[in-house]
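Reopening this one. Same input as before:
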Amino acid sequence: MARCLVTGGAGFIGSNLVDALIAKGHEVLVIDNLSTGRRENLNSKAIFFEEDLLNFEKIKPIFEGVDFVFHEAALPRIPLSIEKPIETNDINIKATVHVLLAARDAKVKKVIYASSSSALGGNATLPMREDGLCNPLNPYALQKYVGELYCKIATSIYGVPTVSLRYFNVYGPRQPREGAYTPVIGVFLTQKKAGQPMTITGDGGQTRDFTHVFDVARANVLAMESDKVGKGDVINIGAGENHSVNEIAEMIGGESIHIADRPGEMRDTLADATKARELLGWQAQIELQDGIKQLLEAENG
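Same output, byte for byte:
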């Protein structure tokens, strides 16, 4: 049994990861300031610390005796980072430095960092490989890319084993459903439940590699367990197939309307998951159609 610390463990991805770790018998600590996380997402078996990662002196003692750190805490969403670059920079970069330094001082065995496929940005060719030249198109993408670089530096200079997992459009239970920056599947489900038309941005032809949160949680556990990673590696965590926003609307079903396009976003994403298979023994198991069907069934009780 390992002692694991999950930052952002009351959030969407973090809470699903906490559940996966506890299901495997690990002891889990959670740090979350509940700014976007929800107390009801917390696993009752987790040890919860309501703290802010920007307060280094408060969080540092929590890392003592921890074996593995999963850094999931972030202020995600591209539009939010464009509107609030200072706040998102603090959470997505400064807090990451705090986590890495606290992990160094506590001599943890490995830090698993939640990155984003958006880091590749304008230079992305499909399928997207990890070794492509990064050209972030927005503050969030830049912030996540800087986090990857800090992880590599933490490994090379401070000797902290790290691995960065680049998530591709994660969806599933507990996904954000409200607010101006909600991801598309959450938006569509909320609109459908309210009897409103689904709002498709632009022509709806833009594609994304949608990856179920259960698969993402499993990838994190495998990254913890694998002795092949920890040298500042960057690994794509994506299903390896992409679908357009129009297709998502069709899967969910119902009326839809088109609204203005948003700036600063990639047209298409598609993961090359070769490294994940080779280094982690991971590949996505949940098909998008099945994942959406399960979400719709949960909506209808």
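So the earlier flakiness isn't reproducible anymore. For the record, The mean pLDDT is 95.
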